[in-house]
Amino acid sequence: MKRKTLSSLLSLVLLSTLFPAGLPHAAAEAGRTGDVSPTLPVTRSVYETVYGGRAMPANVVSTPVGVNLAVHQAVYASGNEVDWLGPANAVDGNGSTRWSSALQDDQWFYVDLGEEFTINRVTIKWQTPASKYKLLVSNDAQHWTNVLGHDGEIACRGGTESTDFDDVKARYVKFQGVQRAPVDGVFYGYSFFEFEVYNAGELPKIVKGITQIPPIAKGQTEIVLPHVPEGYKVSVYGSDRLPVIDQAGKIHTPLVDTKVNLLFQVEHTDTGQKAITGNVLAAVPGQYTQTDDLNKEPKVIPSLREWHGRTGNFTLTPTSRIVVNPAHKTALQKAAEQTKEDLRDIADVNANIIYGAPRAGDLYLSIDDSLAWLGKEGYLFDVNDYVAITSADVTGVFFGTRSALQILKQDEAHAQIPKGTARDYPKYETRGLMIDVARKFYTIEFLRDYVKLLSWYKMNQFQIHLNDDVGTPFQDGTTAAYRLQSTKYPGLASKNGFYTKEEFRDLQRLGMDYGVNVIPEIDTPGHSRAFTSFDPSLGTGPHLDITKPKTVDFVKSLFDEYIDGDNPTFIGPDVHVGTDEYWGNTEVFRGYMDTLVKHINGKGKHPHIWGGMREYNGVTPVSTEATMDVWHVPYGDARQAIDLGYDILNTENSYMYLVPRLYKDRIDPKYMYKMWEPNVFSDTTLPYGHPKLKGAMLGLWNDISDSVGLSMDDSHDRLFPGVQVLSEKMWTGRREDGDYNAYAAAAERIGEAPNANISHKLQVPNKDGNVIKYSFENGFADASGNGYNGSGKNVAAADGKYGKGVRFGGGESYIKTPLQALGFGWTVSMWIKPDADNPDDAVLLESPVGQVKLKEGKTGLLGFSKEHYHSTFQYKVPAGQWTHLLLTGDNKGVSLYVNGNEYVEKLWVTNGASPRIDTLVLPLEKIGSSANSFKGVIDNLIVYNKAVSFDGMNLALNKHAEASTSEAPHLSPDQAVDGNTGTRWSSSFADDNWFSVDLGEQQDIDSVVIKWEGAYAKKYKILVSGDGQQWQNVKAGDAVIDGKGGVETIKFDTAVKARYVKLQGIERATIYGYSILEFEVYGPGVLNSYLELVKQAEGLLALGKGDNGLRSQLQGMLNHFPYDYESSISPLQELIARLKESIEWENDKTPPVTTANVSPSRPDGQHGWYVHLVTVTLSAQDEQSDIARTEYSLVGGKGWQPYSEPIQLSTDGTYGLRYRSADKAGNVEEARLLLLKVDTTAPTLAATANGSPLTDGTEFTDSETLALDVQATDPVSGIAGKTITVDGKPYAPGTPLRLAGQLGAHTVQITATDRAGNVSQAAISIVVKTNIASMQRLLESYHAAGELSGPLKNKLSASLKTAQKHENKGKLKQAAKAMNDFKKKISKTSGKDVISEAAKAALIADANALIQAWTGNSYDLESTDSTDDQLEVGDDSPDSEDVAA
Asked: What is the pTM of this model?
């Protein structure tokens, strides 16, 4: 950081949080509308005149347009701060003199123009700006009119502020103060360098009127320029999407509808006067429409400028290749090789590099000169079956690979990219980072990794600040450093760290490969103590004596050494020459600046300089052939630099400076994402697309970093979030659909660049974050499941705290792990028993990132080292006894917990007023050391990739918070309860401000932790409430707390139950408000209960008694000490109780006795079988140690089941139930056997007739004879017997059952009984019917049996034949007649006829049944009349129909 007076430094702190409000409505109407930022006004015109804003030359007699009418005119003021700051200084044309008012709000200043002029612009060049003011005009200095109308107030922007208004004729122009703005919390008067009055002519009105252009049609190739009056011409001056609309007005149709901010320049064709419009928004129709069914834009940082999705995904496979267009092999070979290495790191795919045509799954790299309109960094990104990345330049192709790799990294399988097409290109040309390596040295490896990181986020400039001064001497006693080898001036490079020329060349070459321009900076003539220390004749202290030609020649020769020759050191296109904060003669300084700028240009390099042309205002010309870094508005703002003709970078300290522990420690990503991009300065917002604004550069200044212990890891922790968000804002800028939460989630996923894990982050596949767990029970095996097994050297197994440990013997004695380090957010714990004779600096853990030491230096105290910094806890680990150490570290510091909370110490960067940074990246390469290991034993070493706290649960986390005021919208009260110490609440500058948090419900609380930023409360109270209305002080007697700042823990006098907790400010410790990083509320907690249980457990284990299984479980919980203590309390309590019981019962040698009770009490079936559900109830007794378990087995003593409720034997079978019990002493009863036979199921049965199944409703003819039988089965107890009855009469199975004469339904009853006594029964209904054929068969049967003989048989057969004939013809009555005749023949037998009574009865029954079926009646021959249908009976002669047939 550039050094300043204390007030300047404090003003920077203020600027980091306070920004002017937006313009009032009246001011907007007066020509300052269209602001880009909601809080900052836009410079509407960068207005150039032929007179450059100076007084009108004497020979000009026409209307003085563009001439400062106030210069050297009479002025008047309400008062002055001191006499020599009088009002005449503000009209003397000298930007270095100023008027400063008295210290009151109502101060005024006016100028008498000498005569009445038409005016329309006032420009004020501020030194100490107002908050609000008015501009008034008059013709008599008595009656004043507001130039904005309606008594409008102007919200001051500071810097060079121009207010345009409608033409007005006036002689007097007045500044009227309304409200002053505080500087460093102090209200000074108003102060400005110049007060200028103009007639700006018609140009401001013309440019004000240009607010739109004719609509652009789809496919249109050029814009239509806005109309201007005759005598003027208009052209495109700037575009914030040059690849869509360029400065010639040509249109390259975007993929989808796109908005472009344009600037137009209007020029008077005669005078050459020019003015620039504000932004004019142009809507450009796209080639395609992005619809919801297409792939959404993939997340990358910076985000893509244009995207049109397809459907489906590209898939990377193990056989995917990197294919390079053969025509561009030489140009793209390096990019392909780098992409190959990065792809292997991200996706574990070793892709071959091929020069040819792509196929599915490949990455295809190609150069296309026709894409020059995209710029050298722009590229086409086309994803289909393969990914094609095309650009006009290697840089664009390489940046396209970064996008592909970022998308793959975020994919869970690191294999898929959504199909679609993107065009990507930067909004700002320069996107940079500067690191001050002078005041804090960084290794060349760190810088090389940062080149990769910058390229990963498409940042393209890396400035290395090589020399500077420090206040607190370095470790070697020097107070300045120069970090680059010089062969021309041996000894110039600092002995405490420098880069060789070849290292620096290689760094620049690496940058070229990665699309990053590495810019060396040698800062003179200020910040030059390294040179004056080397050669005192060059100057004094931090300043070179540039009045001496020798000094100037020295500086030029130093640049020449690095630029000239066949093997130059500065091989890039740019060189930064510094030139700031020089307090010698201004004109000499300006001449020096001009000399250096021209000298560097003369070497073919482009120079960069620090801005300061207001601070160093003068007449000596300074070449504008340089890029100016606008870094401190009071020294020179963006508008002044542009007016002078410089290209500029936004490096303004309000946004772009990190000065750890002095000014701004961290970037606020959320604020920067939502509120900033490179056109935003604290005093103005430049319009989008301004061609002189090249971009921005984040700067890390290490003014006091070395003295406060800032490491490279600390630096990266501060830089990385800034690089991420600023890359988004510099490449893409503001997005209409911008979503910070989505951005932040992507930033977390995308993370570090491949092959450059600067943060030392490590993810492990377990939810607990357990990285390493060495219990030493199995040597150096890692029990975490991650496979990080160690290997030992000069270590030995020893008795541990629990089981086995490892003894370290001092000197070279260590366990080597597969890991090197673990980044911020880590925890390590161990049991340690040191020997008494440990040496100084005895090491517990070490790797290149640092060491954890048993004894830090000669202090004898626990501590750690990183780089050349050392931190010490005020704790000495006792020798000869076991002590548990838990260290946990994040980016705020390291905390120590000894034996739980027996001793707690937190080394945090916010401790009190000390700026010390006591952080550590955890060294893990070796446990012990390769040179100075500690002596003693370690047991149970556990490492987690998260920071663990034993402070309990923060009840205020993410709860609703309120405050009396907030200094700015982004410093709201919720920022103090979000768990992020990178955000904060800050109040207004008043003592009585308050902050409160609603815990959501009444809770037991006993302490508050306040993590203050620099502005803390000197006196305050902590109040609590149940309803938010009635408040009670947590300290007796309404006591006031004396604040110390840093991290303050306020213990309540007694625990209370409350819902609301409030900080009530009484007195500030600084001129600012109150600023709180985090406000935390805690309850009593359970850690002490846990520690007491641990002591009990250790005591029980030490007895060596009790159940081994319980002891093992309890030992496992102690091995995890003290993690997850809150959830461990209940399991610990249970195990302790169980182990106590097992110890008490160790003398019990008698097994228990188990009794079985069976229900029913005895078999309720036959032959010892149970025919109902059996329930067995077991009960056990033990006279001493009580029952531990009862169990049973139904499978022959195998598969024992715990007995918990009565055993239901619900399945039939024979059971051998074995049962037994064990007591808590471990005695197991010999198994008892209970045999049980259960058959609750009756047999299955079925009937057969003549061997076929007999089913209900089966029909038989009466001519049949049946043989019935029963089929019965019972698989459990077997069949004891079976019976059959027919119509209630016993039937012997298998005997013939004749059906003749048995027409109708009959019931067959079957029964089966099993051996257990279960009975099955079934009733089957059968039906016996007859027909003529059956009757015929009966005749044959009776005849064969001798029951029918003689002529009767044939007579009967003839009747049946006649009946059959009629039936077949459907003549049922005739059939019935024939059947009636059949009956008569049976009744009238002759002497020769023989028929048994049984046969007679059966046949007559059959005949009646058929007659009934055919006629519904019992027909008798005598009762029928002699009609045409009367049946013929008595013979078998054929009827007439038979004859005809």
From this structure: 0.75
